[in-house]
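Summary for the steering committee. The consortium agreed at its last meeting that each partner would contribute one worked example illustrating the joint modelling workflow. Our contribution is presented below. We chose a case with several input lines so that the handling of multiple components could be demonstrated. No manual editing was applied between input and output; the record is shown as generated.
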Amino acid sequence: MLYPATRGGFQTLLDALTLRPEPVSNPGRPALIYLETGRPAQNISRPDFRRTVLAYGAGLQALGLRPGELVIIAHTQNLESIYTFWGALLVGAIPSMFPTLTEKLDASIYMENMKELVRLSGVAAVLTSDEFAPQLRGRLSCPVYTSADLTAAIVENDTAAFRPYAAPPEEIAFLQHSSGTTGLQKGVALTHEAVLNQLAAYGQAIALNPRDVIVSWLPLYHDMGLIAGFILPLVQGIPLVLMSPFDWVRHPAMLFRAIHDYQGTLCWLPNFAYNHSARRIRERDLEALSAASMRLFVNCSEPVYQESHQLFIERFSSLGIRPEMLTVSYAMAENTFAVTQTPGSQTPVLDIINRARLEEELLAAPVAFDHPEAITKVSCGRPIVGTELRIVDDGGRPLPERRVGEVAIRSDCMLDEYYRRPDLQPFQDGWYLTGDRGYIAAGELFIVGRSKDLIINAGKNIYPQDIEAIVNEVPGVHAGRAVAFGVPDEREGTELIAVIAETKDKTLLADQERRQALIRQIRQEVARQSMVTLSYLKLVDAKWLVKTSSGKIARAANRAKWLSEQGRR
Amino acid sequence: MDEEKVREKLRHFICQELIRDDEYQLSDQEGIITGGLMDSFSLAEFAVYVESEFDVYIPDADLTVAKMNTLDQMVARVMRDLT
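What follows is the complete predicted structure of the assembly.
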């Protein structure tokens, strides 16, 4: 197992266990089991995995891919994207996983975003499916290779002659693309060294051991999916049972079936997934299943609701899931992945604090659970080895315990840079400012909100200005008079997205048919142009929206007004 | 239960619980998921509702956007197995 104390033998991801035929400690266990609804499981041994990724490396090299070149992998989640990623690492290229086009998303908008990315980041090649490639070709200034191209290159070339690139540890291994405003996604560049430091430190934090089995449905274009649900198991020699997020979201019981069938022990889930599982799995899909093999579920990527954990335990305790299995991690792509982790042997610490004092004094003051202003915060745990954490005020000065400020981190697994974005300087005096607001109590981190208006919906980061820009373009909406914000929803366990849009046409609001047509069009446009669905949409006249003295639309004030109309706070 | 009853129950459930807009006039053929009215998470919720309300179990293979995108498709699938 790769822990900080044993990290010495590994200089790069290519030295890691994936390239060894069989880890001595763990012979005969699969590298990967891939599950799809309606199809037999695909069980890939470590020798097979190694042979295949070497063949992919040879094929990619034959296609002309060279060390240091950025390659975008845009597939629906499948084995080919996994082999291609690893093949690109073997060539010394810099792979980055990308989401693919979905049924809802508008193809031309997706293509435009890809074109911008290719131009700004100097992408050397895009690898995608046979169906999708013709649409991309001709629009991009770089080559687009299909599955068929790659297969042909693999067949024609002699894998035996292929020699993996000898990467220096300080070279960029891959990029994780964090979401950003349209067309300007930031590529978080991570070196081999940083990634290995994270895997070693995080392995220790979760007491990773050779008997573990990781089960994941997470997308590989997201840091939690890429690191915890892909690179960690393959490098550490832990079997990975993987499925597609599109499959899981419609058939959530398949996660529990996988845990049962393969004796899963570790699973990472964003908070909404606890609610989705508890509320949307049919009883008969759980018949005769056990999850007693589990060691840890790790709640990560969006604010943690204690209610979601309770719901999960109530629904699944009969399967053998116990409260102490439910842990929490605070993570971000810029730190490769985890910043903190709660211990596996106990339930996360709950901190009951005074909401009014939190808002007014920026102080997390403990109160009794029955205090009228009591709110409960769930601990994210302590920093992992090699990562330091502090809370700073607006001037960057450190704050004492229980004072709320911005979370700042410093570590040995931090990003190298935002790829080809010298305009973005991620560090301030060596510290990375996360944009999240929180406090530290007894050494443990608690998150209370964000410095920006970012919405986190089902683990995805959504910028309200992106949604507003789409709504503003819909004919009938008064341009510049749309506001989008997040609404925390206990039932869903995540933030839902609300939009309030002003229309100039007074008669439209009174005419149910025309009003409905506009609502339909706004919802359709948001779905076509973004990856999200609006949960609430309200059309209003010119008097409704709250504006600042300079005429700007104030998101927080409109959010508060809408919530109070709904009888919420 | 006749088809019209099933249709109205499903329409009400979808507007109230999944679209979160009581006043929404959901037509029989509009794309509910492709039209951005609900997300694919809601397909799983739809399946739970159909089982509890009509005692119809829709297997995972049928819970796809292609097969369950309109009210007409949903009604037809429930009617097929309604006893």
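The mean pLDDT of chain A is 92. The first helix of chain A runs from residue 46 to 62.
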